[in-house]
Amino acid sequence: MPQMAPISWLTLFLYFSMIFLLFNCLNYFIISHKAPMSESKMFSSNSLVWKW
């Protein structure tokens, strides 16, 4: 709508930017991330046996 004043565009931009950041932060922190496996578990003796 070209009749809107520039301050209205600025407030709408800030409003939607804050909603976007809030949405992304919530999506990131809602998911429970698993801790990475330790190297001793990654390289167990069974995984080093080659089957040729």
UniProtKB/TrEMBL annotation:
GO cellular component, one term: proton-transporting ATP synthase complex
GO biological process: proton motive force-driven ATP synthesis
Main location: mitochondrion
Keywords in alphabetical order: CF(0), Hydrogen ion transport, Ion transport, Membrane, Mitochondrion, Transmembrane, Transmembrane helix, Transport
Gene Ontology terms, MF aspect: proton transmembrane transporter activity
Assembly and oligomerization: F-type ATPases have 2 components, CF(1) - the catalytic core - and CF(0) - the membrane proton channel.
Entry's family note: Belongs to the ATPase protein 8 family.
Protein name: ATP synthase complex subunit 8
Lineage, top ranks: Eukaryota, Metazoa, Ecdysozoa, Arthropoda, Hexapoda
